Amino acid sequence: MKTATEKAAPRPGPDPDGSVLVDPAWLAGHLNDPDVRVIEVDVSPAAYDDWHIDGAVLWNIYSDLKDAGYRTVGTAALERLVERSGIGPHSTVVFYGYAPALGLWLMKLYGHPDVRILDCSRDTWRAGGHPWSTDTGALPAGGYRPGSEDRRIRAGQVAVHDAIGQPGATLVDVRSAAEYRGSASGPPAAWNQVAAPVTCRRLSISPSMASTTPMGRSAPLRSCAASSRRLSSAATLS
């Protein structure tokens, strides 16, 4: 086992400015806090199995967060995932990895109050000397059940169709440039739905694979109007 440890620090309450970004130094100091749960989100276990943040649990996009039709999983599946991840009603859940925003959005969709994204990449975390491990020991399962789905932050096909061309509505396509142009296919069934959903301030589609900047910091979550594109007319929404 490859691992490292750091002394835990007192845990403050939620940020007064409501930021969803967590500083790596803060997380490093709270890895032993029983109210903090760290989740790596990726498309395969390869990177996680090689090494991961000490105590982190893997959420595999294809086996945990998407169903056979590439739609986000429903309430029962998310409840099982939350239970095996040791998440409780008062947990601060910190996501990192390839697609942390997808995990954050799902937890927000079901009403979890304290969900964050680590403000650095995996490599930046390790290069900074923060704790990492290859230990995949299971966390104690809990009995916490998230709330019901908040449909105010999910837009269906009709809502998206009706928003096209409307003032104040911004649609964002977060696939690759090739997929946006229609010159490449995305994941299974990507052409039958909004493949990598995002949350907009005025119109919510569903959440995306979160990105990092060239310096390894997480791109801030902001209004979709700040960096929008029109939804590709080639995509057929389910």
Describe the 3D structure.
The protein starts with 20 loop residues before the first strand and ends in a 57-residue tail after the last helix. The strands form two sheets. A five-stranded parallel beta sheet has the order 1-6-5-2-4. It has a two-stranded antiparallel sheet with strand order 3-7. The chain has helices at 24-28, 46-50, 61-65, 75-84, 100-109, 122-127, 157-163, 177-181, and strands at residues 21-22, 36-42, 52-53, 57-60, 92-97, 115-118, 132-133. It has 238 residues and is an alpha/beta fold. Residues 1-14, 188-216 and 219-238 have low confidence and may be disordered. The protein has a domain at 21-133: Rhodanese-like domain (Oxidized Rhodanese, domain 1, 3-Layer(aba) Sandwich), CATH 3.40.250.10.
Kindly summarize this structure in a few lines.
The protein has 238 residues and is α/β, with parallel strands linked by helices. It has helices at residues 24-28, 46-50, 61-65, 75-84, 100-109, 122-127, 157-163, 177-181; strands at residues 21-22, 36-42, 52-53, 57-60, 92-97, 115-118, 132-133.
Q: Provide the spatial order of strands within the biggest beta sheet.
A: 1-6-5-2-4
Class derived from helix and strand content: alpha/beta
Average pLDDT reading: 75
Approximately how much beta-strand content do the residues carry? 5-15%
Provide the CATH top-level class of the domain at 21-133: Alpha Beta
Q: For this structure, what is the CATH homologous superfamily of the domain at 21-133?
A: Rhodanese-like domain
N-to-C order of helices and strands: EHEHEEHHEHEHEHH
Overall morphology? globular
Q: List low-confidence stretches.
A: 1-14, 188-216, 219-238
Rg calculated over all Cα atoms: 18 Å
CATH topology of the domain at 21-133: Oxidized Rhodanese, domain 1
- What is the name of the CATH architecture of the domain at 21-133? 3-Layer(aba) Sandwich
N-to-C terminal Cα separation, in Å?
Answer: 45 Å
State the helix count. 8
Give the strand tally. 7
For the sheet with most strands, the description reads: 5 strands, parallel
